[in-house]
Design a protein that fits this description.
The structure is a homodimer.
Chain A lengths: L4 E10 L2 H16 L4 E7 L5 H10 L2 E4 L8 H6 L6 H7 L9 E5 L3 E3 L13 E4 L7 E8 L3 H14 L6 H8 L4 E2 L6 E2 L7 H7 L5 E3 L10 E3 L4 E3 L8 H15 L15
Parallel strand pairs in A: 1-2, 1-4, 2-3, 6-8, 9-10
Antiparallel strand pairs in A: 4-7, 5-10, 6-7, 11-12
Helix pairs in contact in A: 1-2, 1-8
The structure holds uridine-5'-diphosphate (2 copies) and manganese (II) ion (MN) (2 copies).
Chain lengths: ~270, ~270
């Protein structure tokens, strides 16, 4: 295994206890594939104290961020754009300048294979979005923390908005010359419906599954005896990926979670 | 307008009268955007005589192709793989060596803007498939006719098969180092459902709409008085693209079609 590189990190975000469940599983998935990089979680004041403690035990670093914590002009303009709230929270990742390079990953991603080779890529690298493959999906991206970039991104956002109201539209408008990485690094778990033969051919090589959409893995429930996931609502998520998520949750996360912040899944 | 370049051509394929309707509209769409290149249609013996005449009037060249017209070893092997039939028919496009460069386009594509700049691209250029964007969609591609490539492709197909049973799987396995062109050159007409804000942002720039799937534009019907398309079955095709297809059909194709080969749409 390569020596740990303290100046590179995987970064994610959660603004509430629900997404934090996703983060806890995401952290375990990174550890399981033997990453040598740091794991950083950005949180807001929307998390319970107990969940913050869980995250602090699990990740290398937890950073509390707040959209409106500085008082410069850009941030004053932001007050007029409440629609872009969570988007701006994600942009905080550019402020983690104690790292030379980072990989941002959504809290609803699951790492299946070691992806430390992503740190060889430059800013801005991402995988195509299957909906509109000229755009990248912003659930996984390689970037370089920089206060200058952070300010530029905020300014750009306030001036131009985001064509989808979220960080993906904003980042795609800002980084028009992005570097394409394989879809295997951000495989939207629904996509095997659109082109099933490709999923059958390449599915075993998927490195990161991304559970996009309103229904997340932690919204389902899981039967420990049968190892089966019961979908609370049809999500289109690949059953194998979902099972992997739940296996990690059951074996590595659930037992240490305080009763009141556990998801639907009942404790034995 | 640039001078006509006789050694470059748009190429399509139809194996029956139904797809030939698509070809007739495709030809008109190319003419409407003022292409300076030749238009070539490959056909098989599955077409009626009347339809062949229509195509001959409409395109610059009609070439009858037949999978098993040569008697070399590869073709004998083909007899054992009837599943790959239409796939191999498409491969005939590499035999059009009177052209230096060609753009193959499916019969279910519709050209919305001039795309002659595609001839500046090298073999093999194509646009990402939205289902699995590490693969290209084989509905539009730039290639260089060559008997050598044709033979290699046949050999490869017989040996390796196609992971999706069609030309897309085959060509993706063969051309692993393909050159990516924008999704705007092969916009799968369903994709605006998956990422609607991107379609709203970039939809006006679409150069080619591609009506993938079992239901094709000519399976619907059209009301001339209202200008509305009635979908025979939900296809997910963008209404604007469908209307454009039907407007071309009504204004430029329908009147000269013999009664017996007209699609569902009734003549006034
Ligand atoms: O209420 C929210 C919404 C989003 N997120 C973070 O923002 C990411 C992007 O949102 P999501 O994954 O739900 O979007 P999708 O991938 O489904 O488009 C999440 O993974 C979280 O990291 C969050 O912390 N709280
Ligand atoms: O019975 C057939 C099936 C296909 N094709 C040709 O092969 C292309 C690819 O098939 P299709 O467009 O139906 O596939 P899709 O794009 O829906 O995957 C068509 O556009 C036609 O040019 C044909 O001539 N006859
Ligand atoms: Mn996500
Ligand atoms: Mn097609």
């Amino acid at each position: 295994m390569a020596p740990s590189t303290a100046k590179e990190a995987y970064v994610t975000l959660c603004t509430n206890d629900s997404y934090a469940i996703g983060v806890l599983v995401w952290v375990e998935s990174l550890k399981e594939v033997g990453t040598t990089r740091q794991i950083v979680v950005m949180i807001t004041n929307g998390l319970s104290q107990k969940m913050k403690e869980q995250l602090a035990e699990s990740a290398d670093k937890v950073v509390e961020v707040n959209v409106l914590d500085s008082r410069d002009n850009v941030n004053l303009d932001l007050l007029a754009r409440p629609d872009l709230g969570v988007t701006f929270t994600k942009l905080h990742c550019w402020r983690l300048t104690e790292y030379d390079k980072c990989v941002f990953m959504d809290a609803d991603t699951l790492v299946l294979k070691n992806i430390d080779d992503l740190f060889e890529k430059e800013e801005f690298s991402a995988a195509p979005d299957p909906g509109w493959p000229d755009c990248f999906n912003s659930g996984v991206y390689v970037y370089k923390p920089s206060l200058e970039t952070y300010q530029k991104l905020l300014k750009f956002a306030v001036q131009s908005g985001s064509f989808d109201g979220g960080d993906q539209g904003l980042l795609n408008s800002y980084y028009t010359n992005w570097n394409r990485i394989s879809f295997l690094y951000n495989c939207v778990a629904q996509s095997f419906y659109s082109y099933l033969p490709a999923f059958k051919q390449f599915g075993k090589d998927v490195k990161v599954a991304h559970f996009i959409g309103a229904v997340k893995p932690w919204h389902h429930s899981f039967d420990v005896s049968t190892g089966k996931v019961s979908e609370s609502e049809f999500s289109g998520h690949c059953a194998d990926f979902l099972r992997h998520w739940w296996n990690l949750f059951v074996s590595r996360v659930h037992k240490r979670l305080p009763e009141e912040i556990s998801p639907t899944f009942p404790k034995e």
